[in-house]
Hints:
Blueprint: H1 5-71, H2 73-80, H3 91-94, H4 122-132, H5 141-159, H6 163-169, H7 185-192, H8 197-216, H9 219-232, H10 237-267
Amino acid sequence: MNRHPSLQLKDAVSQLKSAEEELNELNHQLSTFEALVDAHLGSLLDQLSELNAETALLDGQLRHIREQRLFGSSRMQYLDGAPLPPRPTSLSDQSPLGLSNRGAIHAKAEDLQSPEHKIPDIKVLYRKLARRYHPDLARGEADRAVSNEQMAEINQAYSAGDLKRLMKLAGMGLPYGVDLPPTSLEHSQQYDKHLTELEKAERKLKAVRQQIARMSSLPIVKLSLEVKLAQHQGRNLLREMAADLQYKVGRKLAERDYLQAQIKTSLE
């Protein structure tokens, strides 16, 4: 026997309220943990990203010098006009903004917590995602592969100015009823007029539950659980990760110095 539409609507609204509260709490916990990670590891992650970019540039310069010596300057001028083969992507190679301005990551946290009514600044959201999917925060090869894949998609969306896609990657979704690009809000609102209140509530409930599922599967959420588990075991996982990052920074510094020395020797 079918329930009365008013009872169905009441039930859907109740479920929606509970789901939104769960999503808001998940967003709050994630934002709090990301701030903790940023405080403990942020400067090291930024330094490592900058060194990755610097060593990649130096490596390219050294290869160019050696190829010029091998093929000659006239041959190299010809090759310079040919399309270059793609290089392996990394976080530092992909990031069009870089991560030096770490204060901007949490500058508009309130805009990133609400599942509706607020649309975040695309640059702020990009920086937040770049930190969230930093490969050096991954605790395993599977999560690292996910982070690299997601960063490629994040950078593609950012380069295209696709805020909707960035919000989906953040597990947020656009405000309810905004299914088209932001420039077509009127068309989306017009479409909403053809839905019943029950259909609107059910559609919104589905979207919020999808956001919860996406947020729960984020690598950084898994990291937060590992941090809590380590605390129960008497370990400070973030401190251990900081020591590991410091070691990686040291190795990158040595690699940078070696490349600089090689370039200097090659030019003498």
